[in-house]
Amino acid sequence: MSLSVAAMAERRPFSVTLYLALSRLAAPLYRLMHFIRCRSGKDDPSRSGEKFSVTEHNRPDRPLVWIHAASVGETSSVLPLIEVLTRAGMTVLLTTVTRTSGELAGKRLPKGAIHQYAPFDRLPHWERFLKFWQPDLAILVESEVWPACLESLASKACPICIVNGRMSEKSFKGWSRFSGAAGYLFGKMDLALAQSSADAERLAELGCRKVEHPGNLKFDAVPETADQDSLRELTSSLAERPVWLAALTHPGEDEIVLQAHRALLRERPDLLLMLVPRHPARTHEICDLIARQGLKVARRSAKEVINSETRVYLGDTLGEMNLFYSAANVAFLGGSFVDVGGHNPVEAASFGSAILSGPKVANARPVYKSLWLDGGAIRVEQPGQLADHVLRLLDDPVARDLQAEKARTVIDSGRGALQRTLDLLEPLLPISLSKGEEVER
């Protein structure tokens, strides 16, 4: 009997039963939530059916591995894994939650892979989803643990794995308050592959029965290079002006960045800020903030030209982070001054940016910790210190290049998790990978 089937026989905790019942009753709320997300640009209204397990695809007649990733960072980290599995003859169904991750999948998924948006977490949704797709293996990425999803999977006796498993201290404490539910749900996992030893320990304590630590897949994800015509056009418009980048910012951080930029302009009047919000749908809100600072902005989505009076270039498009990283050699990574948990720094490091971040990076703490300790990134403790750190990097190209080189060294030394992950997944895969095949890096 598989571990997931054995776990199914356990008595379901009341908290899980209550969740499943409430999620059934919440069908109208999910409809309203999806409507609001479509209005704000966070969901794709043309693919609404997928959020409720209605698909326009046909189920391919060959072994199928289902991989579920939440957003862009998680999707990017499993793209190399998906490439290996499809080359071996498997169909890969990738489900994601956010619109940005769906658009990334549309651009970068290999032949033999299908993208769908994941349905809301209700038993009827997952029952319909699993009846249609009939996966031979389910792989959940990082921390995507949803009660209705796991309950439905276990009832189908489908092997369940976590890859690149992450369990922050905060999340661990939250799950620990419901230890019965945690043990019941995490006990359904046939295999948990953790990013770090700390993540492995927490996953084991929560109830995962077989836990391994192959490393962080994000180190093995190779970012797509920027479109060279777009890069030449952008760098030409900069006219050799000094530039810094604020990438993947969230509400509350745009104000911090703009205040820092105002301070920097007193020292470097020709300095340009490239501001790229995590959610481009916030364009008008951010333009209002910029106007209140008395700064002239050019929006990329509107194809507005950067001229000598432009002080902020708003990167309000999707799928162009590689372009902005390529054009700026100093980058502040957002989500790190607010309670979001930070964003993966591997892409920025791969493009040679000198990285700065705030201290709140729980989602990628092992990577940031390595970068901080080895001098590959700067931890900015307080928002008021951001301008000083940016200015030092702009004024000292030798120190800036050395920091970027140290970051690349950290990233290179962390590679290899993909091959170790494949080795551990091999017994559960519906098609065996070629013996001795080397993973392309």
From TrEMBL:
It catalyses: lipid IVA (E. coli) + CMP-3-deoxy-beta-D-manno-octulosonate = alpha-Kdo-(2->6)-lipid IVA (E. coli) + CMP + H(+). Its EC number is 2.4.99.12. Residues 48-221 form the 3-deoxy-D-manno-octulosonic-acid transferase N-terminal domain. The keyword Transferase applies. It is found in: Cell envelope; Cell membrane. One of its GO terms (molecular function) is Kdo transferase activity. Keywords: Cell inner membrane, Cell membrane, Glycosyltransferase, Lipopolysaccharide biosynthesis, Membrane, Transferase. Involved in lipopolysaccharide (LPS) biosynthesis. Catalyzes the transfer of 3-deoxy-D-manno-octulosonate (Kdo) residue(s) from CMP-Kdo to lipid IV(A), the tetraacyldisaccharide-1,4'-bisphosphate precursor of lipid A. This is 3-deoxy-D-manno-octulosonic acid transferase. It comes from Roseibium algae. The lineage of its organism: Bacteria, Pseudomonadati, Pseudomonadota, Alphaproteobacteria, Hyphomicrobiales.
